[in-house]
Amino acid sequence: MRVRGVSLPQGFTLKDLEDRNKLLEDMDSSFKALDQASDTVAGLDKFHQQALDVLRAEKTKKAFDLNSESADLRAKYGADGFGNAVLASRRLIEAGVRFVTVTLGGWDTHGQNFQALKTRLLPQLDRSLSALIEDLRDRKMLDSTVVYCAGEFGRTPKINGGAGRDHWARSMAVLLAGSGIKAGYAHGTTDANGMAPSREPCTPDDVAATIFHCLGIDSHHEVMSVRAAD
């Protein structure tokens, strides 16, 4: 199981990583004056170091070793790229990672929408997402984890000439689970044609505030960015 940006590329060793890090340090030394004058640059250096620590950590390697899971559980998640990624996300959270993102592409169904949903997209999503929620629950991790599933926007209620749906921002749905969120509950509705919200509408800000609340963050708290020196 390899993840771009977290696991090392094939054939790329920790020694190669150290050499590149040394090169970066040499380049950074040329901008020492800027580093000292800017808290933002100093912050980036801290995050860079944290990223290196993640790559070096033994727990990270173990989290991506899916062979330690039972064959039955791996089958529940699905023996494909998306299923493996969702299972790895649970293992990462179990190892102490705070935020994990998994993507499943192909939802821009301007053509043959129903075929794509029925034969490819929905079976994958339903299988792996339900396995994740069930697995987190069985491991007593669901109450301390927020599961958030969403796309960029909705799809047009009307079907276009290519049996597809186009972009639609006036109505869409998201799924939230865990962290005390009420299970089996559908909040709000659209009108009869699915064109726009009709009851208890939520904005993206409302969804973000809900997630912040679950994380114990005051949704009204403001974080001011540091202005770099002119």
SSE layout:
Layout: H1 14-29, H2 32-37, H3 39-56, H4 58-63, H5 71-77, H6 81-94, H7 113-138, E1 147-149, E2 154-155, E3 167-168, E4 175-177, E5 189-190, E6 197-199, H8 204-214
Antiparallel strand pairs: 1-4, 2-3, 5-6
Task: Explain this structure.
The protein is mainly α. The chain folds into 2 domains: 1-56, no CATH class; 104-214, no CATH class. Helix content is 45%, strand content 7%. It is built from 8 helices and 6 strands. Strands 1-4 form a two-stranded antiparallel sheet. The chain has a two-stranded antiparallel ribbon with strand order 2-3. It has a two-stranded antiparallel sheet with strand order 5-6. Strand 5 and strand 6 (197-199) form a beta hairpin. Helix 6 (81-94) runs parallel beside helix 7.
Short synopsis of the structure:
With 230 residues, this protein is mainly alpha-helical. It has 8 helices and 6 strands; from the N terminus they run H-H-H-H-H-H-H-E-E-E-E-E-E-H.
Strand order of the main beta sheet, please? Answer: 1-4
H/E topology pattern: HHHHHHHEEEEEEH
Note the overall shape. globular
Low-confidence stretches: none
CA radius of gyration is 22 Å
Portion of residues in beta strands equals 5-15%
User: What's the helical proportion of residues?
Assistant: 40-55%
**Main sheet record:** 2 strands, antiparallel
Q: How many DSSP helices? A: 8
Could you give the distance between the termini?
45 Å
Mean pLDDT: 88
What number of structural domains do the residues give?
A: 2
Number of strands: 6
Structural category is: mainly alpha
